[in-house]
From TrEMBL:
This is CoA transferase. Keywords: Transferase. Its EC number is 2.8.3.-. The keyword Transferase applies. GO terms for molecular function: transferase activity. The keyword Signal does not apply. The lineage of its organism: Bacteria, Pseudomonadati, Pseudomonadota, Alphaproteobacteria, Hyphomicrobiales. PANTHER family: SUCCINATE--HYDROXYMETHYLGLUTARATE COA-TRANSFERASE (PTHR48207). InterPro entries: CoA-transferase_III_domain, CoA-Trfase_fam_III, CoA-Trfase_III_dom3_sf, CoA-Trfase_III_dom_1_sf. It holds the Pfam family CoA_transf_3. It is an enzyme of class 2 (transferase).
C-alpha cells in the first residue's frame, strides 16, 4: 500500500544525519514530495558513516542513510554560491515546509534564515531543530545523539549503578524522541496554515524533546526533590525484575513480576510457594538480590526461548533478549505481520528495511527506495523550477551542483 495522504505537500529538506531526515521520511512515506537539498562536497554524515553494503564504502551504499531517506528526491547544490542559493529559493517558493537540523547560525550564514525565507514564501512552515533551541545561554553549543543523551539525563537514568552512567547503546534521541516530536509539530503547523493561510516557525529543541521521552525520572525528581537511585534493570516497586543469564552462548531473558499473582506463579516454579519471606512486593524488593540469584539459577539450565515460554505460560511477563540479527532472521511475530520489507536499489540491491510501525486497513505502508546523491537535480530544476536543459548544463559547468 502506497498511501498518498500527504500528496501535494512539498518539503525543501535540508536536514542531515539522523533526527532530521527521520522526521521528513515520515512525510515522504505518506506521499509528500520531499526534496533533499544536499552537498556533494560536504556529504551527509550518514552517507559516509555506514554501515555499507558488503562493507564497501560508497556515498550511495550506506544502509543508515537509506533507512532514513526512503521515498525522497536528492538535489545537490552549492548553497554558498549565489546561483545555488537562488535555486534553493526557487525550490522553497514551490514548497510548503523548509526543514533543517543544523547547528546554531548555519542557516543564517547561507542566507536561509527564517526572515529571508519568509520574504519569498510568506506562508512557509519553517522547521529548525538545533540541539538546545535557538535562544538561551547554551543555544550556541553543538551536539549529537551522545551528548544529547548526556545533558538530558538519559544516561543517568540508564546507569547500572551509582557513578556508572551508561547510555542506551544508540543515539536514542535521533531515532525516537526528536523526529516524531518534529513531525507532530509540522503536521499541526500545516493544519493551522490550511485554516488561516499563515505559516510559522517551529523552533524544536532536541534536548527538550528528549527529556519528554525519559519517563518517570524527571517527574519523580520534581515531586520528591531528589534523584531516584541508579539501579540498572532493577525496580523500586517489583521483584524479581531484571535480565538474567540463561543456558547457551550470551543468552539472556528479561523477567518482571508486577504483582502477587505473578509471584505466586513464579514461586511455584522456583520451589518457594510456601516461603513467607517473599509474600509481599515490599519484602521481595528488599530481598531482590537473593531472588535474583534464585531466578538465575533456575534459568541456567534453560535457553532464553525455553525460559520465556515457560514463564509466559503461567502468566509471568518474560522475553528473550534479542539481537538485531535475531529480529531480522528469527522473530515469528515480525514475520507474521510482514514488518520487514525489501526494496530494490541500484547500489544496495534488494535490501531489507523496517516498515513504519503500523498497518493501515490491514496493509503495510510500502516503502519507496532512497535517492542516489544528486539523482533528481535535473528533474527538480527542470520540471519543478522550470529551468531548461541548456540552463541546467550551464549551471553544472559553473560548479553549482556540488
Amino acid at each position: 500500500m502506497k498511501p498518498q495522504f500527504l500528496k501535494g505537500v512539498r518539503f525543501a529538506d535540508l536536514t542531515w544525519a539522523g533526527a532530521g531526515p527521520f522526521c521528513t521520511k515520515i512525510f515522504s512515506d505518506f506521499g509528500a514530495d520531499v526534496i533533499k537539498i544536499e552537498s556533494a562536497t560536504r556529504l551527509d554524515s550518514v552517507r559516509t558513516g555506514g554501515p555499507f553494503k558488503d562493507r564497501r564504502f560508497g556515498v550511495n551504499r550506506s544502509g543508515y542513510f537509506a533507512s532514513r531517506n526512503t521515498g525522497k528526491k536528492s538535489v545537490v547544490l552549492d548553497l554558498k554560491s549565489k546561483e545555488g542559493r537562488a535555486l534553493a529559493f526557487d525550490i522553497i517558493r514551490r514548497s510548503d515546509v523548509i526543514s533543517n537540523n543544523f547547528g546554531p547560525g548555519a542557516m543564517d550564514r547561507i542566507g536561509l534564515d527564517y526572515e529571508s525565507v519568509r520574504a519569498v514564501k510568506p506562508d512557509i512552515v519553517y522547521l529548525s531543530m538545533p540541539m538546545y533551541g535557538e535562544d538561551g545561554p547554551r543555544s550556541e553549543l553543538l551536539g549529537v545523539g551522545m551528548t544529547i543523551s548526556a545533558v538530558t539525563g538519559l544516561m543517568w537514568s540508564t546507569a547500572y549503578r551509582k557513578d556508572d552512567p551508561v547510555g542506551p547503546g544508540t543515539h536514542y534521541p535521533d531515532h525516537a524522541a526528536n523526529p516524531y516530536h518534529a513531525a507532530f509539530a509540522v503536521l499541526a503547523a500545516l493544519r493551522r496554515r490550511r485554516l488561516t493561510g499563515e505559516g510559522m516557525k517551529i523552533d524544536l529543541s532536541q534536548v527538550e524533546s528528549t527529556i519528554n521521552f525519559i519517563g518517570s525520572a524527571v517527574v519523580a525528581s520534581a515531586l520528591e526533590g531528589a534523584d531516584r537511585p541508579q539501579i540498572g534493570n532493577a525496580s523500586e516497586a517489583m521483584a524479581p525484575h531484571g535480565i538474567y543469564r540463561c543456558a547457551g552462548d550470551d543468552e539472556w531473558c528479561a523477567v518482571a513480576v508486577p504483582g502477587d499473582a505473578q509471584w505466586r506463579a513464579l514461586a511455584g516454579l522456583l520451589g518457594l510457594a510456601d516461603d513467607g519471606r517473599y509474600a509481599t512486593a515490599a519484602l521481595r524488593v528488599a530481598a531482590c538480590g537473593e531472588l535474583d540469584a534464585v531466578v538465575e539459577s533456575w534459568l541456567a539450565s534453560r535457553t532464553a526461548d525455553e525460559a520465556a515460554e515457560q514463564l509466559r505460560a503461567v502468566g509471568i511477563p518474560a522475553a528473550r533478549v534479542a539481537s538485531a540479527r535475531s529480529l531480522v532472521e528469527d522473530d515469528p511475530q515480525l514475520r507474521a505481520r510482514s514488518y520487514w520489507q525489501r526494496v530494490e536499489h541500484p547500489e544496495l540491491g534488494n535490501s531489507l528495511y523496517a516498515s513504519p510501525p503500523y498497518r493501515i486497513d490491514g496493509e503495510r505502508v510500502e516503502l519507496s527506495r532512497p535517492p542516489l546523491l544528486g539523482e533528481h537535480t535535473s528533474e527538480v530544476l527542470g520540471e519543478l523550477v522550470g529551468r531548461s536543459q541548456a540552463e541546467i548544463a550551464e549551471l553544472e559547468t559553473r560548479g553549482v551542483f556540488k
